[in-house]
C-alpha cells in the first residue's frame, strides 16, 4: 500500500473518530440507572449526560431536561463539556491541516513543508484522542467507584452508558488515524530528503579512448 493510500486511510479514521466524539458529546447516556437487587420491574430509567438528563418511562416516553446551572454541575461534567468541545474544534482544525498538506491535494508544493504540515495534522488528531480520553476515564472511574461503594444507596448507583463506549471507540480511531498520518508522512520525508549524487561525465582521452581510471 502506497504512502498516499495510508495517508487517506489515516485521514478517514481521524474523521470517523472526530464524528464519534461529537456523537458521544451530544448523547445523554454517559451514566444510566443500575438495576440492583431482586426488583426487576422499574418505572423509569435515568440517563445522565454532559448537557442534560433524561427519564425514560416503562411505556417508552422520554422526558429530558437541560441542566439549569453550569457552575452547579460536578467537576467531571464541567471538564467533560470543556474537553469534548475543544476536541470537536481541534478535530476540524486537524482535518483542514491534513487536507492542505495531503499528497492528493495541490494546495502546497511537494517538499519538506508539505510533509511537516501533514505531520502537524496527525499530531493534532493524536492530541484529540488523548484529550477526549480524560473525561471518559474520569466518568468510568466515578461510576465504578460508586457502584462498589456500600455507602452509596442503590437508587444512586449508575452504570456506564453507551456514550462512553462510543467515546472510547472514537478515541481509538483518532489515535490510530493520527499515527498512520504521521508515520506515512515521516517515511515520505525521509525518501524525498535522500541526497541524489551524480557522477561526472566520462571524457575521452586524446587518442579517442576513455581513461582507464573511470573504470576503477
Characterise the protein shown here.
With 216 residues, this protein is an alpha+beta fold. The chain has a domain at 1-29 and 69-189: Butyryl-CoA Dehydrogenase, subunit A, domain 3, CATH 1.20.140. It contains four helices and five strands. Strand 3 (52-57) and strand 4 (62-66) form a beta hairpin. Claudins function as major constituents of the tight junction complexes that regulate the permeability of epithelia.
Task: Please summarize what this structure is.
This is Claudin. The chain is of the alpha+beta class and 216 residues long. It has a domain at 1-29 and 69-189: Butyryl-CoA Dehydrogenase, subunit A, domain 3 (Up-down Bundle), CATH 1.20.140.
List how many beta strands DSSP finds: 5
The backbone outline, from C-alpha atoms, is elongated
Output the structural class: alpha+beta
Mean pLDDT across all amino acids: 82
Strands of the widest sheet, in order across it, are: 4-3-2-1-5
Unreliable spans: 190-198, 210-216
CATH second-level architecture of the domain at 1-29 and 69-189 = Up-down Bundle
Biggest beta sheet attributes: 5 strands, antiparallel
**Succession of helices and strands:** HEEEEHHEH
**CATH fold-level label of the domain at 1-29 and 69-189:** Butyryl-CoA Dehydrogenase, subunit A, domain 3
What is the strand content?
5-15%
What radius of gyration results from the CA coordinates?
28 Å
Task: Report the top-level CATH class of the domain at 1-29 and 69-189.
Answer: Mainly Alpha
Q: How helical, in percent, are the residues?
A: 40-55%
**Cα end-to-end separation:** 40 Å
